[in-house]
Every structure is written in C-alpha cells, then in structure tokens.
TrEMBL record:
<dbReference type="Pfam" id="PF19238">
    <property type="entry name" value="Radical_SAM_2"/>
</dbReference>
<dbReference type="InterPro" id="IPR013785">
    <property type="entry name" value="Aldolase_TIM"/>
</dbReference>
<dbReference type="InterPro" id="IPR007549">
    <property type="entry name" value="DUF512"/>
</dbReference>
<dbReference type="InterPro" id="IPR058240">
    <property type="entry name" value="rSAM_sf"/>
</dbReference>
<dbReference type="Pfam" id="PF04459">
    <property type="entry name" value="DUF512"/>
</dbReference>
<feature type="domain" description="DUF512">
    <location>
        <begin position="222"/>
        <end position="424"/>
    </location>
</feature>
<dbReference type="InterPro" id="IPR041489">
    <property type="entry name" value="PDZ_6"/>
</dbReference>
<feature type="domain" description="PDZ">
    <location>
        <begin position="8"/>
        <end position="47"/>
    </location>
</feature>
<protein>
    <submittedName>
        <fullName>Putative FeS-containing Cyanobacterial-specific oxidoreductase</fullName>
    </submittedName>
</protein>
<dbReference type="InterPro" id="IPR045375">
    <property type="entry name" value="Put_radical_SAM-like_N"/>
</dbReference>
<dbReference type="InterPro" id="IPR036034">
    <property type="entry name" value="PDZ_sf"/>
</dbReference>
<dbReference type="Pfam" id="PF17820">
    <property type="entry name" value="PDZ_6"/>
</dbReference>
<feature type="domain" description="Putative radical SAM N-terminal">
    <location>
        <begin position="69"/>
        <end position="219"/>
    </location>
</feature>
Length: 439
C-alpha cells in the first residue's frame, strides 16, 4: 500500500488535538499502530475510546500520544489534503466525456478526470467502478459508506466497454453485485447517447438495474452534453423532440410498473428531456424526494413548486424598482413566467429576463451552470439591466466568486455597470431576491 504523508493543516481551538499540543505542520503517522490510507480510515480509526497516536513533529521528533475520549468524539484535526490521499483519475476514455469536449486554455483543474469513489461519498460525484479494486469495495462495506453514486450508462458489458473505451468496464459491473449483497445504498446515472445505449439497450439496462432495488435507490437518465469542440472525437448525434418523447415514454412506463411493484419510481428523466419533448414537468411525487437534483433531475419542478408556495404568502405592494435576471436557454421560459407571477403582486417591479446563449461551448449546451462570464457580459451589454442583475449561484465555480472562464463577479459589475446579485438556487431565494427593496 502506498503511504501518503498526512500533514496537519489546522488544529481546532479547544479540541483534544490542541490539548495534546499537536500543531499545524505536524504529521500523523499512525493510529493504534495502524497506517492510515485515507480520510475514511482516519474517521474509522478515531472512533475508539482509547487511542495511541504517533505524530512526527516539524523538528523531526516523534511523539507517542495516549488519548482517552468519548467513542465518537473528534480530535479536532484538519489535514492539508482533505482526502488524505492522492485523487484518483479515471482509466476510461468515454465517447461522451465532457472534459474531452472542452476548449483549450481553461484552468488546468477543469481538465482533471476524477473517478474517485471517496469523492462519491464526500461530494456526491459519480464513479464508473473501473479503477476500484476488491480492497476498495471491501473498505466501503466495512465502513458502511453510503450512498455510492455509480455511472452505469449501460448494463450490457460489451457495450459498456465500447462506451467507456475500457476493456474492463463490463466486468466492473460485477462489483455492483457485491455492494448490493452487502446492502450498500447506491444511486445510478445513465448518460444517453443516440443510437448507442438508447431504445432496446435502455430497456434492457433499466430492467437489469431494477434487480438492485431496494439498495439501488434511483437512476437518472440524462442526454449526452455536446459542445462545439467535438472534432476528432467519436461522432455523436443530437437527440430530437421525437427521441425525447420516446425516452420519456419508456421511463414513464417503467415508473408506473415499478411504483406499483415496489412503491418507488426509481428511474428518472433529467429535466432536459421534458423541455426537448415539449412536455410539462412531472408532479413532485414522481421524484421520490428529489434524489438526483445535482444531476438536473427535478430542479425545474422543485423551483416551480417553491415559487408557487412563496407567492401564496406574498401580500405585495407598490414598491418601485427595476432589475434584471439572466439565465440559460433551458431555464429561460420558466424563469420568465415565474418572475411575471411574482411581479403580479408587485406591479411597480420591472424585471427584465434575458436568455443567454452559450457561445463558449456551443448552442447545444443550454444549462445555466455552464454559462461563462464573457457570454453573459457580451449578451447583456447595452441592455436594460436596472439596479441589479440576478444570477443563480450555479453559474459560479463552486465556492468561488468566479465564472467558469475566470471572469469575476466584480469584473462583471464593472463591465455591465450594475450590481450583480448571486442568488441561491431555491424558490424562496428567487422570490426574495426579486422583491428585495434597493437600499
Ligand atoms: S469516466 Fe468517462 S466521462 Fe468521466 S471523466 Fe473519465 S472519461 Fe470522462
């Protein structure tokens, strides 16, 4: 086993670690004589009432520390590397990989192809299981980690090898059996590619996946995202309205059958399918508690319902203000009608809603989360924006004040000469941002 140095980055005030005079820069060598592989080992190993820690101080001294504590009490240590191990990259070359379709010269971290099961538990990432050893699977079972999010794409082993460009991708599906037998909770996703894993293949895949109910909680089906940078890549065809109707028919048929049999809808269509098919978003109950919001499954229905609920509470008044909202092509009709709904109670509020086309990745990319700062600026320049421009927080890189193309919020404010308000993706936040009185 490869040994990673676990350098302590922070010691929390008032913690056991502080009391033991552990300091940032110290290295945790072992716990109860056991070498720590990663963050999961660490959390598992510290769940004891008596611990022996071996710590290497920055001056080279080795300290053996004996600790008595409550069973689940934390030590108050944060490590420089949150994963306590190197991030694992993927061993595939999927025919639909979004990273392969990104333009050059973007931030280097955006090109990192992770396929790390630890990130599945920590951040909800989806993994293909192709770089996981039996040891990794057994650790998940021992530590009862859950849920694990799996990119299935197809249950046809030969087709999976082709789609992932990895000869082990079909065999990797056997690991799902082991997780199922151990009762590990899972979620799944299928990226659908036209004439490849759709139609009969999709029927077969859904049928096979239902065998893992109830431990497999949900599976989403999303259309492949295609940017304008697909030269030299596998030739993929875009889905049409008719295709979307067919995909939805298939999913609804399965939902009906599975709900009658197991009380779960299990298989869910991404919002994009409904928009492409020109169908209404389904009712909230069909999402089984919105298990796959991060995958764009049910986001629109949730927003519609939340805004509706907030609107019922609004009394309204005549306050006067002008503001603007910008969003992607996909969400535009919904955001426009929702803002009109709110403004009915506030006739003095003038809200301009703008649809931003994705020139950076190409017009086939319609989600707001992949808009760039430069596209927003160039398409809003010279338009009526009012005192504030509202943007949903999913246009920013997670946890940062920066758009995908490194444009900052303040650079956008200067370029557009208006304040930019970043709004959380929820109905309440949307309504509050809309009716907020200017200082
Ligand atoms: S698993 Fe496939 S889609 Fe994901 S990063 Fe790797 S190549 Fe790309």
């Amino acid at each position: 086993m490869k040994k990673t140095k676990h350098i302590i980055g922070r010691v929390l005030a008032g913690s056991i670690a502080e009391e033991m005079e552990i300091e940032p820069g110290d290295v945790l060598v072992s716990i109860n004589d056991k070498i720590i592989e990663d963050v999961f080992d660490y959390h598992y190993l510290i769940n004891e009432e008596y611990l022996e820690l071996l710590v290497e101080k920055s001056n080279g001294e080795e300290w053996e520390l004996e600790i008595e504590k409550e069973f689940e009490e934390d030590l108050g240590i944060e490590f420089e590397n949150g994963l306590m191990d190197e991030y694992r990259s993927c061993r595939n070359k999927c025919i639909f990989c979004f990273i392969d379709q990104m333009p050059k010269n973007m931030r280097e971290t955006l090109y990192f192809k992770d396929d790390d099961s630890r990130l599945s538990f920590l951040q909800g990432n989806y993994v293909t299981l192709t770089n996981m050893s039996d040891h990794d699977i057994e650790r998940i079972i021992t530590y009862k980690l859950a849920p694990i999010n799996i990119s299935f794409h197809t249950m046809n082993p030969a087709l999976r090898c082709q789609m992932l460009n990895n000869r082990f991708a079909g065999e990797a599906l056997k690991k799902v059996d082991r997780l199922y037998e151990a009762g590990i909770e899972m979620n799944g996703q299928i990226v659908l590619c036209k004439d490849i894993n759709d139609k009969k293949e999709l029927e077969y895949t859904i049928g096979e996946l239902t065998k893992y109910i109830p431990h497999l909680k949900s599976v989403s089906v999303v259309p492949v995202g295609m940017t304008q940078y697909r030269d030299d890549l596998f030739s993929l065809k875009p889905f049409t309205k008719e295709d979307a109707i067919e995909v939805l028919d298939c999913i609804h048929r399965w939902q009906k059958k599975l709900f009658a049999e197991f009380g779960t809808h299990f298989i869910h269509a991404g919002d994009e399918w409904y928009i492409l098919a020109g169908e209404e978003m389904p009712a909230e109950e069909t999402y089984d508690g919105y298990l796959q919001l991060e995958n764009g499954v049910g986001m629109t229905r949730l927003l519609l319902n939340e805004v509706e609920e907030e609107c019922q509470k609004l009394i309204g008044n005549n306050r006067k203000q002008e503001l603007s909202i910008a969003t992607g092509v996909l969400a535009y009709p919904y955001i426009k009608s929702l803002s009109e709904k709110v403004c009915q109670k506030y006739p003095g509020i003038q809200a301009y809603v703008y649809e931003i086309k994705n020139n950076f990745f190409g017009e086939r990319i319609t989600v707001a989360g992949l808009l760039t700062g430069n596209d927003i600026i160039s398409q809003l320049k010279g338009k009526d924006l009012g005192q504030r421009l509202l943007l949903s927080d999913n246009v920013l890189r997670s946890g940062e004040d920066v758009f995908l193309d490194d444009v900052t919020v303040s650079e956008m404010e200067i370029a557009l000469q208006t304040k930019v308000s970043i709004v959380k993706s929820s109905g309440r936040a949307f309504v509050e941002a809309l009716i907020q009185k200017e200082e």
